[in-house]
Amino acid sequence: MVISKKELEILLSRVPNFKHHNILLEQYVCDSSIASELLWLAYMHNDIENKVVADLGCGTGALSYGALIMGAKDVLCIDVDLNALKIANNFLFENRDRFDTINADIENLHLIGVQTVVMNPPFGVHRRGIDIVFLKRALDIKPKAVYTIHKYNPESHKIIQEIVLGYGYRVIDMAIRDMRIPAIYHTHRKRVHRFQVALYAISKR
Questions:
Q1: Contacts of 146 (CB under 8 A, 6+ apart)
Q2: Can you give the pTM of this predicted structure?
Q3: Where is the Methyltransferase small domain (predicted)?
């Protein structure tokens, strides 16, 4: 069990990268400072320890790994990319008694018994609106809480709040942070791509 957010950030920095980044899936390993803050937020709201956690669009397993080392009862690492799941599975193998990978498109996903959803969905740069699809699917699972990262702007923030309320949930906490992604795609013109993201804590009303 980690004892501080800083320790969690250090551990998450060890998560392996993708072998081949799929631009349509907007794949990248989440900044460890952002991932640790999202997970710490969930932990402080008592939504990680001894809970069944689903990580939608888990990639190579950053949020899944964090949930495991923070004491989740079970973690479901779900992604459409089988190669990414293989990396996650190898990295998290020692936690196999509390960890499962599921190769599935989230639009065709049906889960029961999930108490908390954590996710860093695609931002919708290459597939417009996919971030909202992820949010709706997370809420469709009917967990107690959802912790998610979205590219921030006032308009998208308003849309997210409206969707959340429509599902009978509410935003109980939000933080705006600067995220950094190294240049991994041909569309990136700078060595480090910087932009604002919003971290949301969403709970049933």
A1: 116, 117, 118, 119, 135, 138, 139, 169, 200, 202
A2: 0.90
A3: 35-127
Neighbours of 201 (CB within 10 A): 20
- Evaluated on CA atoms 104, 107, 109, 114, the torsion sign reads positive
| 134 membership: H or E segment, kind and range | helix 130-140
Whether 115 contacts 141, CB under 8 Å: no
Cα 178 to chain center, whole Å?
A: 16
Classify domain 25-204 at the CATH class level.
Answer: alpha beta
Write the DSSP symbol of residue 180: E
Question: Which single residue is written with the structure tokens 């599902």?
Answer: 167
The C-alpha atoms of residue 118 and residue 67 are separated, in whole angstroms, by 9
3-39: pLDDT as tens digits: 799 999 999 998 887 666 555 555 566 788 999 999 9
List, for residues 32-45, the tens digit of each pLDDT value. 899 999 999 999 99
Question: Do the beta carbons of residue 110 and residue 102 sit within 8 Å?
Answer: no
Determine the 3-state secondary structure of 101 from DSSP. strand
* Cα–Cα distance measured from residue 94 to residue 158, given in angstroms and rounded to the nearest whole number: 41
Q: How many Å is the Cα radius of gyration of the chain?
A: 15
